[in-house]
Amino acid sequence: MNGFAGALALRAEVPDLLLVALSGYLEEANRARAVAIGFDLCVTKGGEFADFRRQLDALVQRRADRRSVAAMQAPMATASALPVST
Fold it and tell me: Do residues 10 and 17 lie in contact, with contact meaning Cβ atoms separated by under 8 Å?
C-alpha cells in the first residue's frame, strides 16, 4: 500500500482526519493527485520547519473556523425546519 492508497483507506474510516503528505519528490501532478485523494496539506521534505508549522497552524485554524460556522448554522437549520403554527 502506498501513501495514496493509505490516505484513501484512512479517509474512508475517519472522514475528518487531518492528512499531511510528506514527500522528498513532489511534482505538481503528484500534489494535484494528493489533494484530489484528500490530503489536506502537501509538504516537500527538506523545507524549513517554521514554514511547515505556519502551514499546519493555518490549516488547523481554517478547520476550526469551518466547524464554528457549521455549529452556528446548525441551530438555525433546525429552527427553520420547525412547523409554524397559524
Answer: yes
Residue partners of 83: CB distance under 8 A and separation at least 6: none
pTM: 0.70
> Taking the domain 3-63, which CATH number applies?
3.40.50.2300
Cα–Cα distance between 76 and 55 in angstroms, integer?
32
Domain ranges for the chain, please list them: 3-63
Q: Identify each DSSP E strand in 1-86 by its residue range.
A: 20-23, 41-44
**What kind and span of H or E run contains 33?**
helix 28-37
pLDDT digits (tens, 9 = 90+) for 20-42: 999 888 789 988 999 998 899 99
